[in-house]
């Protein structure tokens, strides 16, 4: 038989590759069925006016890749077991039927969940984007990173080709332990540290340890809170127990009737309100955890940036009974694209954490860990933090001044530290959803709580309806002035009589 095959002699692609693609397409689409004999190479060559060797090479590639089998003195036949059979079924080319003629449908996946709103296509972002959690791109230590990576690659270390400790590179875990002791008051052994893919990877690790495979558990969580935490715990079937926050963070007295194994908090810079939990409330929370046997997950996501006042010791630094699981990340201080964070586990759950980490991914990429270990060991990380802290402080000061100048009556929280503030809009301004829309129209990315990776259990609260979560780390001072100025003009225009 003749096959409907088209080759383009004006194309730069080799004719044998074009022929291979055409034959493969005909096989996968079922035009040439399993077990059917292909025309001889001589006939195809004559039909398409090709050199016979070109056809033979295309046939031989189909044989090598399993689409065709060659039978001596009989020719080439389509294989009965195609390598892309699964793809064919997915794409609807082949339907598997049962004996009664009905189409068999596989079991429906049981997973259900929601994804936090952290990623957007860069091409779709407004020119002046005040989204949370993005470091200034130009602040990335590119020169050090390039040199250190090249040095490690030149050595061709075994770390590139062999499995390592699922908990992470020991040098990096040791460096993290030293950094935490100096900056957060945490005395942790490197064996307690597990390197993860950011805070989200650490939360998955903890959820697997405490929630997977058990009857529905209860997890206490701040209200409002970080979307990624609420959605993740819910995806494991946990029942979320919201606990309100005030100007001092989580209201510990609301936990009196809670019974569960975990509570998730962001005490150093509550997300999204930005409030800091004072020492007396931290001690109250720890005392409650000791009395009830609850584990406290402390998410210290942007604690490297404190501008006003001395930093408070982390909850994990105050803990004396192994009830706090501390989570940190390099996403805010260096870059989220690295996907490197860590969890500090109490001694008695180290082994469970190691096993779960091995099941999740068997460890983080070696090269990134090795370079980051160099960065910390050589003192470059602390110097890097000092430099960008000054940049972010300047950006914060400009943002606060511009908001108060253009939008009198605004209330700002979380300005003492971190990379974002919460802006409670003045009474005369539009509600949060309208404010976000006006900002987008003038090329400014400004986001309400739910659009900025925040979650509110009561969407009609003051936070949900009249608050914006404003990141300032990824823009320069001049860009921030322009963004708030554009926004002020847009809001004024919307209030002008028509």
SSE topology sketch:
Blueprint: H1 15-28, H2 41-48, H3 52-64, E1 68-71, E2 75-78, H4 85-90, E3 128-129, H5 142-155, H6 170-184, E4 193-196, H7 198-210, E5 218-223, E6 225-226, H8 227-235, E7 239-246, E8 249-250, E9 262-265, H9 279-292, E10 295-299, H10 315-318, E11 324-329, E12 341-344, H11 350-360, H12 366-377, H13 380-406, E13 411-413, E14 420-424, H14 432-441, E15 444-445, E16 447-448, E17 454-455, H15 462-466, E18 467-471, H16 477-495
Parallel strand pairs: 3-15, 5-7, 5-9, 9-10, 10-11
Antiparallel strand pairs: 1-2, 4-12, 6-17, 7-8, 11-12, 13-14, 14-18, 16-18
Helix pairs in contact: 1-3, 2-3, 5-12, 6-12, 7-8, 7-11, 13-16, 14-16
Task: Give an overview of the whole structure.
The chain is α/β, with parallel strands linked by helices and 498 residues long. It has three domains: 15-90, Arc Repressor Mutant, subunit A, CATH 1.10.10; 122-134 and 383-495, Aspartate Aminotransferase, domain 1, CATH 3.90.1150.10; 140-379, Type I PLP-dependent aspartate aminotransferase-like (Major domain) (Aspartate Aminotransferase, domain 2, 3-Layer(aba) Sandwich), CATH 3.40.640. It has helices at residues 15-28, 41-48, 52-64, 85-90, 142-155, 170-184, 198-210, 227-235, 279-292, 315-318, 350-360, 366-377, 380-406, 432-441, 462-466, 477-495, and strands spanning 68-71, 75-78, 128-129, 193-196, 218-223, 225-226, 239-246, 249-250, 262-265, 295-299, 324-329, 341-344, 411-413, 420-424, 444-445, 447-448, 454-455, 467-471. A hairpin with a 3-residue loop joins strand 1 and strand 2. The radius of gyration is 29 Å and the shape is globular. 40% of the residues are buried.
């Amino acid at each position: 038989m003749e096959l409907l095959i088209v080759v383009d002699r004006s194309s730069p692609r080799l004719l044998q590759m074009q022929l291979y693609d055409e034959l493969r397409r005909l096989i996968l689409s079922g035009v040439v069925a399993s077990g059917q004999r292909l025309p001889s190479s001589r006939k195809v060559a004559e039909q398409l006016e090709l050199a016979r060797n070109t056809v033979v090479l295309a046939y031989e590639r189909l044989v090598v890749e399993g689409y065709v089998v060659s039978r001596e003195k009989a020719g080439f036949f389509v294989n009965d077991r195609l390598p892309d059979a699964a793809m064919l079924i997915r794409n609807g080319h082949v339907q598997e039927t049962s004996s009664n003629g009905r189409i068999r449908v596989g079991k429906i996946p049981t997973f259900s969940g929601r994804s936090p709103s952290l990623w957007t296509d860069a091409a779709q972002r407004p020119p002046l984007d005040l989204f949370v959690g993005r470091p200034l791109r130009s602040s990335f230590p590119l020169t050090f990173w390039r040199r250190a990576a090249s040095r490690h690659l030149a050595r061709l270390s075994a770390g590139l080709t062999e499995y390592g400790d699922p908990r992470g590179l020991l040098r990096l875990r040791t460096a993290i332990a030293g950094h935490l002791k100096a900056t957060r008051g945490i005395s942790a052994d490197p064996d307690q540290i597990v390197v993860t893919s950011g805070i989200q990877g650490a939360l998955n690790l903890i959820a697997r340890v405490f929630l997977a495979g058990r009857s529905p558990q209860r997890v206490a969580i701040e209200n409002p809170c970080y979307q990624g935490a609420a959605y993740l715990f819910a995806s494991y079937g946990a029942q979320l127990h919201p606990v309100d926050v005030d100007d001092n963070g989580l209201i510990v007295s609301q936990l009196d009737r809670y019974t569960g194994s975990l509570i998730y908090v962001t005490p150093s810079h509550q997300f999204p309100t930005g409030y800091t939990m004072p020492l007396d409330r931290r001690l109250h929370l720890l005392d409650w955890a000791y009395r009830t046997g609850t584990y406290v997950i402390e998410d210290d996501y942007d604690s490297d940036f404190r501008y006003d006042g001395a930093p408070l010791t982390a909850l994990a630094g105050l803990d004396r009974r192994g009830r706090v699981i501390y989570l940190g990340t390099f996403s805010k201080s260096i870059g989220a694209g690295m996907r490197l964070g860590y969890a500090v586990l109490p001694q008695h759950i180290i082994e469970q954490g190691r096993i779960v980490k091995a099941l999740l991914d068997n460890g983080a990429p070696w090269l990134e860990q090795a370079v980051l270990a160099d960065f910390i060991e050589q003192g470059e990380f602390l110097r890097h933090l000092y430099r960008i802290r000054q940049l972010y402080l300047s950006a914060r000061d400009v943002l606060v001044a511009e908001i108060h100048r253009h939008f009198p009556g605004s209330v700002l929280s979380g300005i003492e530290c971190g990379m974002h503030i919460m802006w409670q809009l003045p009474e005369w301004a539009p509600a949060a959803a309208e404010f976000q829309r006006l900002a987008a129209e003038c090329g400014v990315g400004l986001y309400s709580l739910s659009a900025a990776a925040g979650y509110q259990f009561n969407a009609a609260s003051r936070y949900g309806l009249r608050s914006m979560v404003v990141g300032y780390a990824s823009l320069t001072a001049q860009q921030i002035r322009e963004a708030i100025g554009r926004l002020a003009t847009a809001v004024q225009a919307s209030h002008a009589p028509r």
